[in-house]
Amino acid sequence: MKKQITRSLCCLLALLLCLGSAIYTPAAQDDQTQVSFTVTLATGKTTDYATLKVQDKDGKTMPCQEDEYGYDTYNYLLPAGDYTYTATYQSGSQTASGSFTVAAGETRQIPVQLTYTQYKVRFNTTPQNATVALYKNGASGAYGDPILPDEQGYYTIIFGQYRYTVSAEGYTPVSKTFNATDTALKNNNYVITVKLESPADKLLTQADNALFNVSGDGLAMIEYSGVHSDPDFGHYADIDSDDQDVNVQSAIEAYLAKKVKSDYPITVTVDKVENDEWDEDYTVIDKNGKIHYDAVTDDMLNFDETGAELTVSVTLTCLQSTKESEVTVLVPMHTYSRQERLDAAAKKAADLQTLLGDNTAADRVTEPVNLPTGDDDFSYYGIVTGWTSDHPEVIDPTTGAVTPAKADTVVTLTVKAFYTAAQLEEAGFLFDPGPLGDNQSLQTVTLTVPGTGEPEPPTDPEGPTDPKPPTDPEGPTDPVQPTDPAAPTDPVVPTEPTTTEETTKQTETTTKSAKTAKKSTAKSPSTGHTGAAAGALLCGAALLALTAAKRKHTEE
């Protein structure tokens, strides 16, 4: 019994194994079709270097068979069905495509004929009426017949090299070659743009190249022409100011006029100014191109400290043609002109704190003031200073000594800075540029000197008063009355006659006294009531002296 059961199980297992083998057996070779392709070039030669792609009806790419070395072939083992193929050669210069159907178990040989890809090329020319001549380069290097455009202006070309020539009256013709499969041509949608240069365009190209060539070192702006040198090195220079660069536009135009020979002027317009950090910056060069040398600071200087380095974008114009360009310019720090140097010297000399010295305030000056007549910084340039005072009796402009008046005095001191005659006449040169003008710069300083407080003599606004006669220490005397020739006089008591000599002496003495009084009056100040009163007193004294002499003579 056990043997029968065991035999039955073995038979069942064998049956199951047979069924499993039947289920997992792969499809037979007879269910697939062997398909081979032969690719022929447009020239008639077969090739193994074309790219072939086969896809089923669902767009799935079918794998090809490999040769013994692992390389792809044109052989395919395909299930029955519908298929398409595409073939390309040399970057798509030759192509072919088609479809086919295979049945199970058959073998297929499919020929593929490549044809040249046609490209439609269009030219975009300036001027628009320019003439285009297009030729294909032959195998020998010679160009064939011209290729003509269709009604829409397109030129149909195939794989190969071509040369075109674009020309127009009054313009420089352009000739160039290109390949039909150039990537640049494809990226430009097969449009070739050609701009012919007019004589003006050609000049602008030369100008653009000139600016490019100078941008490496930078086009240096010159505030003043000439050489600023030191006599210690044996070279003197009188810097001229006639050729200074005041505007970057005119400076670039002058530079281009030297570099580009042209019968037509090239003008420059500033479009943008950028600093060394590529930020727009119009501090040194404004939007109108004006150069501000005094705006250049130490932190703007480039590595060799020649100046601020700026990139100026410009538009070049010649006749009706324009061209964009740019140039690097160097703007140095400001150089003092002669007048500015004088102004600086005068301003420094008039520094209030220096002038005050030991004084604490300008409105209370009691100590001598410092009036510098020279400075080391400016004497190098041959500049000295001189002082004047509108009240020299209060503040001496030479020594700075202070002599207070009785009343407070407001004193205006004026300093004049100027180039010495020795520098102008003997040395014969000046370091600073610019016109000399009247060779002076003036600065004023106002100081107040307190008065001593002593009272001034009284004055009468109505004029001088009659002087009082001097008093006699021995007692008052009768006033002398003026005599009237018509009025009766008291009889004179006869006296003893005196000698003529005595009378003459007395008369001379009296006359001398009067002359002395007159002379003293002439020397007295003639301004103000004080001088007039003093003169009147002297005249009165002389008159009294003369009257007294006459009386004494009569008594004797």
Terminal CA distance = 217 Å
Tally of strands: 20
Structural class: alpha+beta
Shape: elongated
Uncertain segments are: 16-28, 473-556
Radius of gyration: 60 Å
What is the typical, i.e. mean, pLDDT? 79
H and E order: HEEEEEEEEEEEEHEHEHEEEHHHEEHEHH
Number of separate helices:
10
Strand coverage percent: 25-35%
Helix content, binned percent:
10-25%
Widest beta sheet: strand line-up: 2-4-5-7
Task: Give the total of domains.
Answer: 5
The biggest sheet amounts to: 4 strands, antiparallel
Question: Which properties best describe this structure?
Answer:
556 residues; alpha+beta; Immunoglobulin-like; 5 domains; four-stranded antiparallel sheet; four-stranded mixed sheet; 10 helices; elongated; disordered C terminus
Fold and architecture overview:
With 556 residues, the chain is an alpha+beta fold. The protein has five domains: 29-116, Sandwich (Immunoglobulin-like); 119-196, Sandwich (Immunoglobulin-like); 200-331, no CATH class; 338-449, no CATH class; 500-555. It is 24% helix and 25% strand. The chain contains ten helices and 20 strands. The strands form six sheets. Strands 2-4-5-7 form a four-stranded antiparallel β-sheet, with no helix packed on it. Strands 14-17-16-15 form a four-stranded mixed β-sheet. A hairpin with a 6-residue loop joins β11 (161-167) and β12 (174-179). The termini are far apart. Residues 16-28 and 473-556 have low confidence and may be disordered.
Secondary structure elements and pairings:
Elements: H1 2-23, E1 32-40, E2 51-56, E3 75-79, E4 81-89, E5 94-102, E6 107-113, E7 115-116, E8 119-126, E9 131-136, E10 155-157, E11 161-167, E12 174-179, H2 183-187, E13 191-195, H3 199-214, E14 219-220, H4 248-259, E15 267-274, E16 308-318, E17 321-331, H5 338-349, H6 352-356, H7 376-379, E18 383-389, E19 409-419, H8 421-427, E20 441-449, H9 500-523, H10 528-555
Parallel strand pairs: 1-6, 8-13, 14-17
Antiparallel strand pairs: 1-3, 2-4, 4-5, 5-7, 8-10, 9-11, 11-12, 15-16, 16-17, 18-19, 19-20
